[in-house]
Predict the 3D structure of the following.
Amino acid sequence: MARVLAFRPLLRVGYLAACLLLSDHLSAQSSEPVDQTAEQLAALKAEIDAIESQLNAQEQTRDTLQETLREADIQIGVYDRQLNALSRQRVAIQDQLARLDTQREQLEEEQRQRSDRIEDSIQQLWVLQQGGGMRVWLGNQNPDDVARHLAFFQTIIEDQRATLAEYEQGLSAILSNRDATAETEAQLAQQTDAVGGTREKLAVQQALQQEALAEISTQLGNNQQRLALLMRDQQRLNALLDELQSLSIQSPSPLNEPQPFADTRGALPMPVSGTPTNRFGARRNADIRWRGWLIAAEQGEPVQAIYDGHVIYADWLRGQGLLLVLDHGDGWISLYAHNRSLLRNVGDRIRAGETIARAGASGGSETSGLYFEIRHQGKPVDPADWIRR
């Protein structure tokens, strides 16, 4: 059915070709002049050539639009990851500024205490000098008392020197703190500029994405064409998963879990915070049924792995957008499509609950969310039997 729908315009070409042959046959029995028959045949051939050219142009246009959509989706994923990295950097820089502010307050308080001690000591020495106390101490006729007073006075002087040294060190620490704060604030300003620039680039790619989607929608003017596209997308996904399944069998999962995936029925978490908008097995349209869940979710919502495994595919696929596939061993896989960005790469080991992507609307999805499937030996299974909700 899909092949017939996909190539229905070509049937028209075949029909015109048949008309061409019939016309040729009738011309042999016709009494019309030969030049008139030749003129009709030439007109039919020209029409056939025009239709073939139109079909080829439409196919090339669709391929070009899909390539434009692919590049836009991929760049959106790149900029989305950059923004998340910049966001983490911003948090780290702000934490550093907070620590520097706390350190500054502590240094200034310690410096005030040193300043108070120095001021008190100076006042004491001034009182001794003005009151003649020092002459009384040193004028004592008892040599032992004189020596003791000199030692005490020397101790006071040494304490003042130590306090003054600490005060100088405190000033140096405060200056270092100010330099570090200024440098950190400069880093924050640069980071803010980087965020702004990345957001502008992201906006450009999102505009390109929307333009490509609008053009594709215009190209697919009727339901039969949309059905043919959906069926080709489904065939493409099945072919990919069949290939991945064969690779998975040849290369078993390196993870050795105490509980096999098959024993987790009804206990697995949702891959994203959201609500499925369809039922497994329900009709998607007249000829296609849902093989997984389309889960509504906000753009950028974290997508988590439902179980331990390793990444066997992480790339853009026509009809699925940014797609990530996890191998859980024993023929079990889970797939996550229409993502805004992919956060892990092929070969990465993944633990259950780990964020592997961010939900989105790549691949031409009309709504933001996540398309999710579980398969065993290549056959889709109902996620409702496995996911705890």
User: Anything to note?
Assistant: Strands lie at 275-276, 293-296, 302-304, 309-317, 321-329, 332-342, 349-350, 355-359, 369-376, 379-381. The chain has a mean pLDDT of 74. The chain has two domains: 1-219, 253-385. DSSP finds six helices and ten strands in the chain.
